[in-house]
């Protein structure tokens, strides 16, 4: 046996898993048991491909907090907190946020702020860029430094041009991007393979993965194929929160670790079930 293999307990088994850097371990655990793994991008929103500019923005924010911070999305703030946490800067970042006048485009950033014990000083007149501009019209921005959390790859020229007209050079950060269309096509291919009964197991490790699968099915009018494919496939959930989400959406959950809700116990469940299936 190849020294890279642990055993052949999953030889001939085809397992679909969500694709992400964090789940490389799951793929390795399966592949070392000779499973064939399909990696599928079941995420609609991704961290910015280059983390360095985001981290630099956070460090500058901590060292010299701006006077104002414009938050356009709750997801953006959550991604910033995630980046700060990965570099042991979350507490410092939250302390810096507490010193700043925060202007939220809508209610979603406010919900994330509430989770860390903070609140926005004001919200846009409408949850749009125009609403933010309307709110800023009533504020004196003379000699104030303004930071702006952008999203996706949209530079939001409308807001940038407005701030420039007010004499403000904003400190911008874009902490996440939207998944490319090619990722949606890969998910579409997975749904078709599920419906063709080609996949032995599909694993889920977070609730958004389930939502993404359903959203792509709806986009390509494959909801019935997804329903049929999931009924033909052994569905594995990493823990009870994910299992509950699957059940709420009408999907059967075939296996889940009983106590320890991590990757290795999940793989052990798959091995046991694959053996029980006569392989």
What would your notes on this structure say?
The protein is an alpha/beta fold and about 280 residues long. It folds into 2 domains: about 130 residues, Rossmann fold (3-Layer(aba) Sandwich); about 130 residues, 3-Layer(aba) Sandwich (Rossmann fold), CATH 3.40.50. Helix content is about 45%, strand content about 15%. It has 12 helices and 11 strands. The strands form 3 sheets. The protein has a 5-stranded parallel β-sheet with strand order 6-5-4-7-8. Strand 7, helix 7 and strand 8 form a beta-alpha-beta unit. The protein is elongated. The mean pLDDT is about 95.
Reconstruct the topology from this structure.
Elements: E1 14-18, H1 24-31, E2 36-40, E3 45-47, H2 51-63, E4 68-71, H3 74-86, H4 90-97, E5 101-104, H5 107-115, E6 122-123, H6 129-137, E7 146-149, H7 157-165, E8 171-173, E9 176-178, H8 181-195, E10 201-204, H9 207-219, H10 223-232, E11 234-237, H11 240-248, H12 263-276
Parallel strand pairs: 1-2, 1-10, 4-5, 4-7, 5-6, 7-8, 10-11
Antiparallel strand pairs: 3-9
């Amino acid at each position: 046996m190849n020294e890279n293999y642990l055993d052949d307990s999953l030889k001939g088994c085809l397992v679909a898993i969500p694709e992400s850097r964090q789940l490389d371990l799951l793929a390795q655990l399966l592949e070392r048991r000779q499973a064939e793994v399909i990696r599928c991008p079941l995420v609609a929103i991704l961290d910015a491909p280059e983390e360095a500019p985001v981290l630099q923005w956070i460090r500058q924010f901590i060292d010299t907090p701006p006077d104002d911070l414009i938050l356009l999305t709750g997801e953006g703030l959550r991604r910033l907190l995630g980046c700060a946490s990965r570099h042991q800067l979350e507490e410092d970042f939250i302390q810096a946020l507490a010193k700043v006048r925060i202007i939220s485009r809508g209610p979603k950033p406010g919900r994330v702020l509430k989770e860390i014990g903070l609140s926005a000083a004001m919200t846009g007149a409408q949850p749009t860029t125009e609403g933010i501009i309307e709110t800023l019209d009533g504020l004196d921005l003379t000699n104030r430094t303004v930071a702006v959390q952008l999203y996706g790859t949209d530079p939001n020229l409308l807001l940038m041009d407005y701030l420039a007209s007010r004499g403000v050079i904003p400190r911008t950060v874009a902490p996440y991007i939207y998944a490319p269309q090619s990722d949606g096509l890969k998910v579409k291919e997975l749904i078709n393979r599920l419906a063709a009964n080609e996949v032995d197991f599909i694993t889920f490790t977070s609730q958004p993965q389930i939502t993404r699968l359903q959203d792509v099915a709806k986009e390509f009018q494959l909801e019935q194929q997804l329903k049929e494919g999931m009924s033909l496939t052994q569905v594995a959930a990493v823990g009870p929160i994910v299992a509950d989400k699957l059940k709420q959406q009408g999907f059967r959950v075939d296996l889940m670790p009983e106590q320890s809700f991590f990757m290795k116990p999940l793989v052990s469940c798959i091995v046991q079930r694959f053996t029980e299936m006569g392989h």
